[in-house]
Sequence to fold (486 residues):
Amino acid sequence: MIVVASISPDERLAIEDLYAEYAAVLDDQRFEEWPDLFTDDCTYKIVPRENYDRGLPLATLAFESKGMLRDRVYGVTQTLFHEPYYQRHLVSGFLMRRLTGDAYAVRANYLVVRTKAGALSELYSAGRYADVVVRDAGRLLFKEKLCIFDSELIPNSMIYPL
Amino acid sequence: MIVVASISPDERLAIEDLYAEYAAVLDDQRFEEWPDLFTDDCTYKIVPRENYDRGLPLATLAFESKGMLRDRVYGVTQTLFHEPYYQRHLVSGFLMRRLTGDAYAVRANYLVVRTKAGALSELYSAGRYADVVVRDAGRLLFKEKLCIFDSELIPNSMIYPL
Amino acid sequence: MIVVASISPDERLAIEDLYAEYAAVLDDQRFEEWPDLFTDDCTYKIVPRENYDRGLPLATLAFESKGMLRDRVYGVTQTLFHEPYYQRHLVSGFLMRRLTGDAYAVRANYLVVRTKAGALSELYSAGRYADVVVRDAGRLLFKEKLCIFDSELIPNSMIYPL
Fold:
């Protein structure tokens, strides 16, 4: 069981704010702001649950620095051919644990709803985040973000970050 | 980026309570209580995201006082012919910012699940709220509530408030 | 209306932690840990909303002690023949009210997404929890958990707890 003792309400709500900001940036399609929610030496991975549970290293997407996140944003906004869609993040069930003075392990469940032009909203991805959040120059940022999605099916158009 | 500094945990949780109460009132179908969550001079609008993002004024629904909300409730409960359905609201990703001493800009993501008689639950509407909440005679109320929904398709039976 | 006064931010967030832990235990399929989130004399029921609203006592599942929860876990993990699936809980809209010094009435909306092997994630159950949470030997536990689901259809494979 994850023990959350010794994280103050202020700290906890500030961490929840980071997740709300993350969702708002992606759902508003302000993709250029997305890398700024990460540390320079961050890792970002999207992994199927089955692989994760079996300890298999294969990831659907894996980026290992803020620079790689910026490359991805360039791809998403400039070069990747894709049918655009809206995303909507719902995130709940936060469990936090302090790792060091200014670092926190955070897990939470997420649901992403996708809406394509001219179509009804549909369930796109459900899973959980298993992240490391750190305080860097006074600001909370993701040092590690791991998106573990439940469906073994890899949607053919996972273009935007989860 | 929305800065939430200077809103205390108590204030923040009280605002989240208002949203929980709002969801409970609608999901319990206690429609008569719904206008009481608004100020007398409130505005309530449901707007497709595409219109909102382009600055187009067209709204699917627009009410401009608590009296109009009461009229809507009368319609929903007494006169509007419709197939009844249950709603279930999931709301997360709160971002708050103080506007004045007792007024707050609040945004949050929402998901409404609909269940018709004899049918499975289905995804009905996803989007976000962009609201103004004020303290009025000691109680938090909606002064403005804007529901921006992602799907361009307007469901043929948007009877109940989102 | 449910009044939440006199519950401190610390208490409230600790109660939300219990729900997050509950979701994590079930979604991780750590079923053996599930009964430990309840008191010895707990009740756990899953009830269709229509029955609940009409005051009908019929429940889809009803357990009346931690021992019965353990029996259920044994069934789920050892004897019940079923096609396995993943669950993902989203819970929001907490409304809390103190009943006595160390007991709280808690309601919240839930959404459970189900993912079967080789299939996309799908909406499985939406509804609300109407629970009693107590502090027992310093730990928050469920004394009563009532899952009221919106759909009148009873899924043919409600194997895991909601």
Q: What stands out?
A: The CA atoms of residues 13 and 19 of chain C lie 10 Å apart. Helices of chain C lie at 9-27, 49-54, 66-79.
